[in-house]
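Observation: inputs received (chain + iron/sulfur cluster).
Thought: call the complex predictor directly.
Action: predict_structure
Action Input:
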Amino acid sequence: MIDTGGTILKENGVFSSCTQRQELCGYACCKFSSSNWIMLLPGEYELAIQQNLNQDHLVFENSSRVVCTAPCKKGDLKPIDCSWYPLFPANADATKFLVADHRKCPIPNHELIDKMLSVHAHAVAWEQQHPGSLAHMAALSRGFVGYMPFPYKIENNAVVDMDMQELRDIALPIELPKNYVCKEWTMSSLGYSATATPFDGR
Ligand code: SF4
Ligand code: SF4
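Observation:
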């Protein structure tokens, strides 16, 4: 993701596995030509107003759903959802996650484990401040397109593999087409599939 805007938590979510791959993906997660949308967390908009963050680059479809129309810059609101990308909590205690289709975001799953732990911590803290918001967000995320089940979860403070049934349970009803090719990518996506990259396991 673009690293110039700031979230209301002052966490931009930028990490090296992302910055190393931006030449390949062409910042695909920040291009919104195909009706992609960003989720605002319950209470996030109100805090952004209090912090005087500029929102001119965002089009609000409703209080929890925005579309980004221009790269965010210093002083602009960067939604927390952007800083969590390519992960998003899939359950009400943020122990299971969705991950972006790897034909769109090329970061291998094993490089996202630290990110998972960080998103978990922020999501749990948000839930403490805004009770019920995680269940609400997980329910809204069922409408996401371009996300797959993340193969790891947090259990008893440890990172463990999801089993096949758990993966099926959080799979979204709509996936990107089998022949999907991200038009933002600057090179061939050969070797990348919805759930895998050529660098898995390295
Ligand atoms: S698509 Fe993935 S690798 Fe590319 S900028 Fe977004 S988060 Fe980073
Ligand atoms: S606000 Fe827009 S430009 Fe900034 S990180 Fe989110 S999608 Fe990208």
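Thought: report the result.
Final Answer: The chain has one domain: 16-170. Residues 6 and 78 are 5 Å apart (CA to CA).
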